[in-house]
Amino acid sequence: MRKKRIALLGSTGSIGTQALSVIRRHPERFEATVLTAGSNADLLIAQAIEFGPDAVVIADESRYAQVKDALSDRPIKVYAGAEALCQVVESQQVDMVLAAMVGFAGLKPTLCALRAGKAVALANKETLVVAGELVTACAMEHHVPLLPVDSEHSAIFQCLQGEVGNPVEKLLLTASGGPFRKFTAAQLADVTPAQALCHPQWSMGAKITIDSASMLNKGFEMIEARWLFGLPVERIEVVVHPESIVHSAVAFADGAVKAQLGVPDMCLPIQYAFAYPQRLADGAAPLDLFALGALHFERPNEHLFPCLTLAREASQRGGNAPCVLNAAGEVTNQAFRDGRIRFVDMPDLMARTMAKVPFEATPSLDTYFATDAEARAVCESMIG
Known about the structure:
This protein has helices at 14-25, 41-51, 64-70, 82-88, 107-115, 126-141, 151-159, 185-188, 193-196, 206-214, 216-229, 267-275, 289-292, 307-317, 321-337, 345-356, 365-383; strands spanning 4-9, 30-37, 55-58, 77-80, 96-99, 119-122, 146-148, 168-175, 236-240, 246-252, 257-261.
């Protein structure tokens, strides 16, 4: 069997490094032919030396010389800049693209990969949040799979295997509840970025960890699930499950519910996407139900975590509304980490940005880029 050649967009991030650990465990099945990073040149260089890809891309052009010099004695092509990301995913040396870049920046290279006929393992949820209709239509047009990597969407995808034609009642999207699940409104007003970055179950990058604490991440996952599985957000229910063992579930019309369980380890959904439809041994650690003893489920408190409501409203409105929410979410996330705003200011700023940016019912790709830029400017101006 020929090795599957994988381009990792965002190889130095949390998902990217875990994907490389999957490739490391299965060198007979997978190889990393393209590695890309935003600005972490040191780690990109170390990864390139270990995995020997055909090409690497450093998006931060100021780091190009450092990467080029460090790899000058190796047969590795070195590129820089955002446009290079789109070019490398079209390479004949690539069979699958792992889209693990953070934020809106992942949209264009993901579309380029789909247009080039590459299977996409999607870990960048913002791609579907911002332009779900455009991205899913592109995948269908070019007859290429769009495989979910988020643990929740991978779980739903796994639950739907063998269920073609069977009516789905709703999707049950589980959420850990984050570090502030038991906080009061008064306590939330004083939380610090350091507190928000301490997730009780998952080890993730800074942006997604803050989004998880505010539950904006779960709101985005509702929108992503809408496009991946073709159900409106009204039939996607968020269930707070603090143990993070049930990764999500599907309720069928006959009353049956199928769930996928496993320890909190992103290597399982990454490996499942890479090897689909096969399951490979040596994935995540085995689940010990006896050690768990009990699992708990709660309704989310949307009064304390209004980002869920904002995401649902943006999805129902459609058009460029989710794009505005995503842009404001990225701006406020960074502003909170920088100490410029409070944790509880984030949803208010997102809502105000959504009210100010003009609505476009049928946006094109150019419209999404214009909307993103305008929403960021509007949100920044309100932060001041």
